[in-house]
Design a protein that fits this description.
Elements (H helix, E strand, L loop, with lengths): L1 H13 L5 E3 L12 E3 L1 H12 L7 H14 L4 H10 L9 H12 L3 H17 L4 H5 L7 H9 L2 H5 L4 H11 L5 H17 L1 H11 L5 H7 L5 H8 L3
Antiparallel strand pairs: 1-2
């Protein structure tokens, strides 16, 4: 694919010591390539290369994203997820099946999980009824499905929708023993609290005794010190 070769040339142009970062310190999982190009630089490359496909129909661009993912080439997950999110508002409902396959086949750490959730989050804004399918991820044995069930709701609740689903998802994940899932739904509650501070704080106070401390700390991070102290008290 000519586009793939163009992307690889662009990557080579920017892949210099000053543009790299050791990401292993941010991950518990052992990364295949711990030293990688900084995210800001990758996003710059992504924006530049996206110009080559920008005028194509959304369905064709998603097919290209599939090709990038299937190539197995380094950094192509980043570009595929970045480009798919740029298509927000243009998704077909049937694209959900494609994205669920991406979740199954290409997500293996919290970084690419959260990047991927920018796509599903935008899809939920366009098709809110798909929350029923996303909610099913909370029952998966795969930690990244469960984290994605929560993180996918961040974009919608930031836009002022699906607050009830945020609470339903938090209920389903409330006592999950995986710290990556706890941080994911805690982050979801934290972002929901920006838009709905009273409702989220009430939810936290009702559930704080069952909520793992990790999730609780994430959920209340943006509240004033007095409220954080109140929430952290065990009854």
């Amino acid at each position: 694919m000519k586009l793939l070769e163009n992307i690889k040339r662009e990557i080579a142009r920017y892949d210099k010591p000053e543009n790299r970062l050791n990401y292993q310190k941010f991950f518990k999982e052992k990364l295949e390539h711990p030293v990688s190009i900084k995210t800001a630089i990758l996003r710059k490359i992504s924006n530049n290369c996206f110009k080559e496909v920008k005028g194509k129909p959304a369905a064709e661009i998603l097919d290209i994203c599939d090709e990038l993912l299937e190539s197995g080439e380094r950094y192509m997950r980043f570009f595929a997820f970045d480009w798919a999110r740029k298509l927000k508002g243009q998704y077909r409902k049937s694209d959900f099946t494609r994205f669920e396959r991406w979740l199954r086949d290409y997500i293996d750490n919290w970084g690419n999980c959260d990047h991927f959730c920018g796509i599903t989050g935008q899809m939920l804004i366009q098709y809110p009824d798909l929350v029923i399918k996303v909610r099913k991820w909370t029952k998966s044995k795969n930690r990244w499905y469960r984290r994605a069930a929560a993180v996918s709701l961040i974009d919608p609740v930031t836009e002022g929708i699906l607050l009830d689903e945020v609470f339903k998802t938090a209920d389903l994940l409330l006592t999950d023993d995986d710290d990556m899932v706890q941080k994911g739904y805690g982050w979801m509650l934290k972002e929901a609290g920006d838009r709905f501070p009273d409702e989220v704080f009430e939810y936290v106070m009702q559930n704080k005794c069952d909520m793992p401390r990790t999730a609780l700390r994430y959920a209340i991070e943006k509240y004033p010190a007095a409220k954080r102290k109140e929430a952290m008290k065990r009854d």
